[in-house]
Specification:
Layout (H helix, E strand, L loop, with lengths): L1 E2 L4 H12 L6 E5 L12 H15 L3 E5 L1 H17 L6 H20 L5 E2 L4 E6 L2 E6 L16 H6 E2 L7 H10 L21 H6 L7 E4 L5 E5 L27 E6 L4 E5 L8 E7 L3 E2 L9 E6 L7 E9 L2 E11 L6 E6 L2 E11 L1
Parallel strand pairs: 1-2, 2-3, 4-7, 8-11
Antiparallel strand pairs: 5-6, 6-18, 8-9, 10-11, 12-16, 12-18, 13-18, 14-15, 14-17, 15-16, 17-18
Helix pairs in contact: 1-2, 1-6, 3-4
Amino acid sequence: MIGLSGGVDSSVAAQLLLEQGYKTEGLFMKNWEEDDESGYCSAEEDLADAQSVANQLHIPLHTINFSHEYWERVFSHFLQSYRDGYTPNPDILCNKEIKFRAFLQHAINLGATHIATGHYARIEQHNGLFYLLKGADENKDQSYFLHLLNQQQLSYSLFPLGEIEKGHVREIAAQAQFTNAQKKDSTGICFIGERDFREFLSHYIPAQPGKILTPEGEVIGEHQGLMFHTLGQRKGLGIGGLSHHSEAPWYVVEKDLLNNQLMVAQQKNHPRLMSQTVMSGPIHWITQGSPSLPVICMAKHRYRQPDQPCTITHSDPKGASIHFNQPQRAVTPGQSIVFYQGEHCLGGAVIKSTS
């Protein structure tokens, strides 16, 4: 059972499964009850694209609405993270709870032996254990978003695009004459889509304006809500043209939740933006158990970041401490830190604080 989203990646993945001899069926998931007048969500259009591809491939297309599961398992946590002053990554929790839990269970109930998605990642099995590897296309590798998967989920999963580069995927779609061959890749919040994020978030969390100040304590503006800003942010601050400051851009260097204040500075690598030690929540290890410490490995504290050498110095069920070899810029609480050894994704955790 392949998750057909209406996008080009899952469409090509479905064709590759058929070519590899799998008896394949598609499943379209609707996971957000959008306002039809909003213009942001495109579930109807995506379903039409998924159905068109299914028809071309001569495979059945099932549909399911996981909106309740998405709200309970993903979106409510997303909102609470913002209330707590964090900057969450809902795509990671969406993969764990919806695509590889709710979808997996539904597919099994329909008689599937495996599920497949259009993710750019790979799975290998050795000695009874399943390992998550980076996708062959370094520019599209999505193992970062899959690091919370467990052994059972990986044992049921197939990633047909793991060895393929994105450009070749487009070529396959064009050769197959899929109607979505040139469709733009989806961005924005998982299953919610592209929209005015500030306006969207303010529907669920009341904005609390506060002061914008410099590290020296000078008040230079007002923010509309800390939840609208993230560390290292440059655009959308609403400040500039201050007569007693240079024209250099301003960057968010700190969020003071207790006092509802946003601190900004005119240095891209301001000392308050740099940190070398990360305290995280408990680490999810993809293979069995926690390895012996210290663990010397590589890590990403945001997607598309080059791997950074680090040492995991402490790890227990309450949390972990990670020390980077070099200071890191804008390590953001609420985001995930994901660990690697070579191409192998070891697992990861949610960032809690830095020093």
